[in-house]
Predict the structure.
Amino acid sequence: MNSKSHWNTVYETKEDNELGWYESDPVTTLDLIKKTSIAKDATILNVGAGTTTLVDALLENGYETIIASDISDVALQKLHSRIAKTYQYDLQCIVDDLTNSSKLSTLSNIDLWIDRAVLHFFLSEEEQVAYFDLIKKIISPKGYVLIAVFSLEGAEKCSGLPLQRYNTEMLSERLGNQFSLVESFQHTYVNPFGGERPYIFTLFQKN
Ligand SMILES: C[S@@+](CC[C@H](N)C(=O)[O-])C[C@H]1O[C@@H](n2cnc3c(N)ncnc32)[C@H](O)[C@@H]1O
């Protein structure tokens, strides 16, 4: 089964609160976003967004220009329709593969890139290089990159898939010297089934 079918099946067969990464209130990510200096009309790209409640939280906090992307069209349809119904907001959704991008790579001037729980699924050198090259290509000068992934102490699998876990230094190295670390911290997320999932949250800014 390829990645797109895997993720589409997940979103077709589970309600949001049955997902092992579901957060009713994405407060940790939102608090970190508030530490950036981005304007309310800045362009925010949430990659591997799934059906995240972060889009709801961003709208409720006044952010106006949000793009959601995912490899799963099923997830994005669910997200788009929930956001339209709740906020009468026409969320821009882009179905694309972060490791082999055709659409995201045409974007530019992204002020904030947000990844929660996506990068750690990319295991090969080629996939990881493609992911970081995409960031470097489309982020604006002084733009921010927020990456929250399983830490070195985190679980070895998620959604039945093996993971590459990270610490801050590994992410810094991948981003390279064009980016400076603003903040990083460990955070243990407790999933809907009571499982503890240690994450590393990082915020970088392009120099
Ligand atoms: C663990 S979920 C996290 C979803 C969301 N970020 C959240 O915090 O609720 C991982 C997400 O990454 C997406 N994904 C996996 N591989 C991808 C790829 N190659 N390109 C884009 N999205 C991908 C999946 O469809 C899924 O929605």
Observations:
- The beta strands are 43-47, 65-70, 92-95, 110-116, 139-150, 157-158, 161-162, 179-190, 196-206.
- The chain is about 30% helix and 30% strand.
- Residues 3-206 form a domain with the Rossmann fold fold (CATH 3.40.50.150).
